[in-house]
Amino acid sequence: MADAQRTRSVPIAAAVAVLGGLLFIVGRWLDLHELRLVSKGLPVLVMILLVRRGEPDRYSRWIAAGLAASLAGDLLLEWSADTFVAGVLAFLLAHVLYVAGFLRRAAQPRLLLALPFVIWGGLVFAQLEPGLGAMRVPVAVYAVALSVMGWRAAALVGADVGREPWRTAAGALLFMLSDTLLALNKFGEPIAGAGYAVILLYWFGQLGIAASAWDPARPRR
Fold first, then answer.
1. Which of 5, 19, 212, 213 fits as disulfide partner to 63, beta carbons 3.0 to 4.6 Å?
2. Buried b (16+ CB within 10 A) or exposed e, 140-163
3. CA atoms within 13 Å, Cβ hemisphere of 63
4. What are the C-alpha distances in Å from 179 to residues 53, 98, 107, 134, 189?
5. Which candidate, 161, 6, 124, 139, places its Cα nearest to that of 85?
6. Span of 69-73, 96-100, 185-189 with lowest mean pLDDT
7. pTM score, two decimals?
């Protein structure tokens, strides 16, 4: 009976997440700030609840904490322009928490694998730097954290850690693409339709990372 209830709860959770995403997109299209604020965090909130189902292990706790920091970042970025920096700091914390979780699964350095992520971060920062002004240092620190998060997610592939490490790596890559597009749109030339691409890439990126931490076989608390 408990297993059946858990199985039924997943489609319900998915429906809530999709509804929240659709409401946010509608709110963005119609420029309804209150609707965006209420709905934006629903997809990530659902992911947190799914990751926390059952008896969590240490890895899932790190991922749930990263998702919670991301949820805070979602709300802060949407609240107002005055809370933008606080939102960036919340996402910086999320990347640190994800890295801590990934290192629990695979701690081998794999330094050569870091090279494409260093190049990515360096090129993006070089493109953004002329328009950063006082945000130069925060953005540089964020670029480093984002690149490290992507590197450590990629390091899971081939490390025999189970739970589909390709999903985690793909999720991290989508997250990086989302943040890169957001930064280029905010600090460079505006890109038409960028906001929609940013949020979709972000949600699917978070889904890939979160999916590595929910395990239907874990006993329910």
1. 213
2. eebbbbbbbbbbbbbbbbeeebee
3. 32
4. 28, 15, 25, 19, 15
5. 139
6. 185-189
7. 0.92
Closest by CA position to 118, among listed 164, 71, 79, 150: 150
Token pair, residue 116, equals 């494409």
Which helix (H) or strand (E) element contains residue 199?
A: helix 194-211
The total of other beta-carbon atoms located within 10 Å of residue 10's CB is 14
Assigned token pair, 77: 């970025």
pLDDT, tens digit, 9 for 90 and up, residues 149-201: 999 999 999 776 655 789 999 999 999 999 999 999 999 888 999 999 999 99
pLDDT tens per residue, range 6-52: 555 778 889 999 999 999 999 999 999 999 999 999 999 999 999 98
Residues 6+ apart with CB under 8 A from 96: 145
Residue in 123, 15, 104, 17 with CA at minimum distance from that of residue 63 = 104
From the list 209, 214, 216, 203, the residue with the least C-alpha distance to 40 is 203
Half-sphere exposure of 164 (CA within 13 A, CB side): 13
Read out DSSP for 97-146?
HHHHHHHHH-----HHHHHHHHHHHHHHHHHHGGGTGGGHHHHHHHHHHH
CB atoms within 10 A of CB 69: 21
